[in-house]
Structure formats: structure tokens, C-alpha cells
Design brief:
Strand order of the largest sheet: 1-3
Radius of gyration: 16 Å
Shape: elongated
Strand content: 5-15%
Number of strands: 6
Number of helices: 3
Length: 107
């Protein structure tokens, strides 16, 4: 159980008023896009806060480049730097346990 994933899902459900479907059927799987939205929002919020009240393109770019390690729902080993602005270095692999009706993380 990743608390950031739970926080993300709770936020999305509260804000949209809609359930988040995470079925194995790709057409009804909202989980991946929901986690991606939460990750992008967290990066944006962190960078905007670090850039300060007098936001410019330069201050925003500098803030992104200086974030360093950042916790993102559904991802691990995430960081941003001037040399690498690709935050997600890896994802957590999970499978759906139909009997338990829940996702479980795989090692």
C-alpha cells in the first residue's frame, strides 16, 4: 500500500465526484492516467512554489532543475535536475488479486 497512491485516488475521487476504475481492461483503467495526473501536479506545485511569487520562465526552469528527489504516487526513484528533467526513473509493478479484490505490489 503506497500512501501517495491512496492520497492521489482520494483526491481525484473527491474533486471529480467520479469513481476511479482500475480494471484489467485497458478501456476502463483510469488508474494509470490518474497517477500520472497526480505526479505532474506534484511536480508543477513543487516547481511553482520554489520559483517564488515573481514567476518568470527562468525562475520556473531553475526551480524544476533544482527539485532533486521527489515522491510521486506510483513511481519510485523520482528526481529532477538540470542534467535530467525526466522525473520518473521507475514504476512500481503491481498485479490485481481478484480473490482479495485489491492490487498488490510485486518485488
Amino acid at each position: 500500500d503506497d500512501p501517495l497512491v491512496a492520497e492521489c485516488l482520494d483526491f481525484l475521487i473527491e474533486e471529480t465526484g467520479q469513481p476511479i476504475f482500475y480494471e484489467l481492461d485497458v478501456e476502463t483503467n483510469d488508474l494509470a492516467s490518474g497517477l500520472y495526473a497526480c505526479a505532474i501536479s506534484r511536480i508543477l506545485e513543487t516547481a511553482l512554489t520554489a520559483a517564488g511569487p515573481d514567476l518568470t520562465n527562468e525562475s520556473f526552469a531553475a526551480a524544476l532543475a533544482s527539485i532533486g528527489p521527489i515522491d510521486l504516487a506510483g513511481y519510485f526513484d523520482s528526481s529532477l535536475s538540470a542534467a535530467d528533467l525526466g522525473a520518473a526513473k521507475g514504476r512500481r509493478l503491481a498485479r490485481f488479486d481478484a480473490e482479495a479484490g485489491a492490487w498488490e505490489l510485486l518485488d
